[in-house]
Amino acid sequence: MTEKVVDLWKTWVTRRWNAEARFLNLERMGQDDWLKKHRLNVPTSDPSSKEAQVILKIASRLRPEIETISLAHNGFTSGRIMQYLAHYLPKLKNLSLEGNNLGAWREIDYISGKRGRLEELRELILKGNPLRELEYKNNRAQTYKSEVSRRFPSLEILDGEPVARVGFDAPSTSTSTPAHPRTMLSTFAWNMEPSFIAGVDGSLVSNFFMRFFPTFDNARRDLLDVYAPNATFSFSANTAIPPRARILGIHSSKEYPHQRNLAWGPWLEGGNGGSRNLGRVNGLQKVSQSLHLGHEEIIKAIAALPLTQHDVAGSPEKFSVDAFPVRQGEQTNLLITVHGQFIEKPAEGIRSFDRSFVLAIAPDGSRAKQRGWDVIILSDQLVIRGYSLHDAWTPGPMRVQAGDLLPSPGLQQALAALPMPQRALMQDVILRTRLNFQFAEDCLKNNEWDVDRAVANFEQVQGNLPSDAFLPQDAFLP
Amino acid sequence: MSTLTQNDIEIATRAADHFTRLYYTTYDSPTRVDDLPNFYRPNSALTWNGKPFEGTDGVRELLIGIPSTKHEVQSFDCHPIPGSQPPNLLVTVSGIVTHGKGPSANPANTPRHAIDGHPRVFSQTFMLAPDPNAPPTKSGEVAKYYITADAFRFVG
């Protein structure tokens, strides 16, 4: 396309632009006399047609930023024409596709799929497209609405009607500006801590796991009584390779000879409905099928998963548990998250997993209670992922970058006397400079408690500091 | 006990998608200390790698003590929990998180097999509950949800 043609498109876009309303009107382009007069080709879905891309690129430079586009009444049969929409206008709020000829969901996936999604879309109009009108004609309006809103989680209005959804008190990413600039720490102020169990007797949690996992491994059908009659269960496979395990070469290591026998198929397709990774699952039917409601359905699903062996009794260090009470209406339940590993049969390779349970105290007289369970499961979500070492939750301070100093227990104890956030800021400066408390505090005070400024200041003057300005070597872990 | 409808499941699925996107975008932004606490309430309970924090102030304190982050969600799941209407939502997230500047900021003499600086695998579980005191602000909103419980751990 020549520069002259691009300039003509710029002129045309400006003619169609309403800056006050932040609205770009791209309706009925085929009937546009100005385009005809200047012999400009109307954009088409032909892959060789560059017009759509040119228009969107020009649109992306409009100020104030564009909020609304109408592509109504252009006779579009393919969504390909919109393939660059999410790229050039990722913050688009309102879109009309009214009166086109779009007939399949794959056309919409050009603006809601992996190649690009309008993450902030608030309002969409699809009236007058076969995609919508056929569903309405066949009394499938609800399916149509679900299919659209599933594709655009931020959608508030569809075809002029409000979309039922859940709201959050979240900042609008486009309008939020820093209240005051903050420097973030370069180190962790918090350590990795051991298992945390609160509001409940620790033995209740350990008794549950000591019985649950062996039963899950050896006699899954016996778990019928521990799931509440209206319990929920699903599992999802995170098939991504864990970065640190990859660097350590675990997958190909001689120490773990069976890792190569593992395959994701039995998890992605198994368990009576397959993996329920909502970031991947396509289609409402799959979303429903992979959520198992009621204890009988749950037992069927877990019975259809690959066999497992969790060594909870032999190697407790390979498991991490956090448990604390959660209120639900009038009731107080227990939220338990457990992380660990199991051997998958028959491959014999090791998998890591995360499992979240909502538990309630087993009511007196319930089947669970009669069978000796102290708790019943209301909800159970299992994540299976590639194997990572359990070192991940070894208690103690953690590094951000390689070569970072780590504080000794003594240094952390001394710092513990300080209130937050001073404690975090002091530890950060000390770990980055080795300065002692007095010098670190002075340095921070002289720089308005901004850690980056304090460290920059230190670097200018460090040559002139006395040796007793620094902490001894044993203040840091070797 | 109430049972779940297809509609409950759909709203829950969409809510989880919207929530995870908003939550981690906010977490990874330079204004996280001001903005992320909005997702919580004073009675929210949370643990970060086994350390307990309480409420919006606790979230603020937690965030002051950790380096900048970049989260990548690799899988997530969500159940409506039967028992109340609208139902609580149990959301689990599995993904990776890079702290600070990542492996490229490691010192030049770092051994090739050092794992420091590289992304960690994280697991985060949320219980979301409707806030009876926060009326819906937009048409179509069935309720305003907040995080009543949050359990986070590095797991790889």
Automatic annotation (TrEMBL), chain A:
| Keyword Transport recorded | yes
> Cellular location of this protein?
Nucleus
Going by the entry's taxonomy, the superkingdom of the source organism is recorded as: Eukaryota
GO-annotated biological processes: poly(A)+ mRNA export from nucleus
Segments crossing the lipid bilayer: none
Q: Which Pfam families match?
A: LRR_NXF1-5, NXF_NTF2, TAP_C
Gene Ontology molecular function, alphabetical: RNA binding
Query: Where do the TAP-C domain residues begin and end?
Result: 420-473
Chief location: nucleus
Q: Which GO terms describe its cellular component?
A: nucleus
For the keyword Electron transport, the answer is no
Keywords tagged on the record: Leucine-rich repeat, mRNA transport, Nucleus, Repeat, Transport
Q: Which SUPFAM superfamilies match?
A: L domain-like (SSF52058), NTF2-like (SSF54427), UBA-like (SSF46934)
Q: Which family does it belong to?
A: Belongs to the NXF family.
What protein name is recorded for this chain? NTF2-like protein
What organism, scientifically named, is this protein from? Answer: Lentinus tigrinus ALCF2SS1-6
From TrEMBL, chain B:
What domain of life does the native source organism fall in? Eukaryota
Where would I find the NTF2 domain in this sequence?
15-154
GO BP terms: nucleocytoplasmic transport
Record's protein name:
NTF2-like protein
PANTHER family referenced in this protein's UniProt entry, alphabetically: NUCLEAR TRANSPORT FACTOR 2 (PTHR12612)
* InterPro entries xrefs: NTF2, NTF2-like_dom_sf, NTF2_dom, Nuclear_transport_factor_2_euk
Among Pfam families, the record links this protein to: NTF2 (PF02136)
SUPFAM superfamilies cross-referenced by the UniProt entry: NTF2-like
